[in-house]
Design brief:
By secondary structure, this protein is of the alpha/beta class. About 30% of the residues lie in helices and about 15% in strands. α1 (about 30-40) packs parallel to α4.
Length: about 350
């Protein structure tokens, strides 16, 4: 899969996304500075959310429309939440331009067809389907029909929901799919991260696996990296003190930078399957054990356990030959501290 000029998959590094969400708190300048800070913090991309309160819900205070899910938004109506959190559409071009200037890939989560059409006009290079939209099959079909890479978040998804969403993408001829493990709690308890799903997503569904993370800290992204995640998304904010609906579970620049550092170090630690030693590792074999003369031996005397032993350093014969050497006669005087060699034994061919 390729997003803009960035390859994402088996042979590429983790694609790290800073999620702007509502963390502009109604200020375009804050949004622009957040993009610049995300670049400084090591993000590869910035992600927006493209909706209005009216494209997500209706302005209604009936019981169904009041949030009572045990979240940080309880008591608000859906309309009130989204009216306070949305990113004005007239900002989008400025945000895309700023990201381009900073060398960041910019894309968005659309929440209805009008948002998709709007983002198409801006030349968005990929789409994200938000956790709560994974059941909106008509939306997923419409987004997938645009032929752009699809990143789907699974926060509220059961297995059937995932299968239906993936089928929708593939039915539209779109196989550029990444599936992100997500826990839709804000913030999410680390014990609910369930990173075992990273490998499961890859094997069961044949997609690029990743993580949309709402836990606090860098532990879960680092674990995800080790387990094969190729995309990591985290909410990003200049400073939690500016407030806003998503502030409490968003990372600031310092925290995000530390996470990026941890992820990149985890990538380096992963390495690859390779039994070859580096030059430095080869040098370390000096400290391995090998067979040495530990007591002077005169020519014609027999090798015993008392005069030859496996010790450090590693310049003598391999210890596996000790049994073969015991009972053999040496051809020359050997001083204590001499590394054993086959040339010291007449007419002997090792097994």
């Amino acid at each position: 899969m390729k997003i803009a000029n960035r390859s994402i998959g088996e042979d590429s590094g983790v694609f790290i996304i800073a999620e702007l969400s509502a963390n502009h708190n109604g200020s375009l300048e804050t949004a622009l500075e957040t993009i610049r800070a995300a670049k400084r913090a090591g993000a590869d991309a910035i992600k927006l959310q493209t909706y209005t309160a009216d494209t997500l819900t209706i302005d209604c205070d009936k019981d169904d429309f009041i949030i009572r899910s045990g979240s940080i938004w309880d008591g608000k109506t859906f309309y009130e939440l989204y009216q306070s959190a949305y990113t004005p559409w007239e900002w989008h071009k400025d945000l895309f331009d700023c990201a381009k200037e900073e060398g960041l890939i910019c894309f968005s989560s659309p929440f209805d067809k009008t948002a998709v059409d709007f983002l198409e006009e801006l030349g968005v290079p990929a789409y994200k389907i938000a956790s709560f939209e994974i059941t909106d099959i008509p939306l997923i079909e419409y987004v997938a029909s645009k032929g752009k890479p699809m990143i789907l978040s699974t926060g509220i998804a059961e297995q059937e929901d995932i299968e239906l969403a993936l089928d929708a993408c593939r039915r539209m001829g779109n196989n550029q799919i990444a599936l992100l493990k997500c826990t839709s709690s804000y913030p999410a308890p680390i014990e609910e991260a369930n990173m075992a799903m990273i490998h499961e997503f890859k094997e069961r569904f044949g997609v690029i696996p990743g993580l949309s993370d709402h836990t606090m800290g860098a532990t879960v992204p680092m674990v995800a990296t080790i387990l094969g995640a190729k995309i990591i998304e985290k909410h990003f904010i200049l400073n939690r003190s500016i407030g806003g609906p998503d502030a409490s579970f968003s990372m600031n620049e310092k925290e995000f930078s530390e996470m990026v550092k941890g992820v990149r170090e985890a990538e380096k630690a992963l390495g690859q399957v390779n039994y070859e030693l580096t030059e430095k590792q080869k040098k370390g074999r000096d400290f391995s054990r090998s067979l040495y003369v530990i007591k002077d031996i005169r020519a014609g005397e027999t090798i015993t356990k008392e005069n030859v032993r496996s010790i450090r350093p590693g310049f003598g014969l391999h210890p596996k030959y000790l049994k073969d050497l015991i009972g053999q006669t040496v051809s020359k005087n050997l001083e204590k501290g001499t590394p054993m060699s086959w040339e010291f034994i007449e007419n002997f061919n090792p097994k």
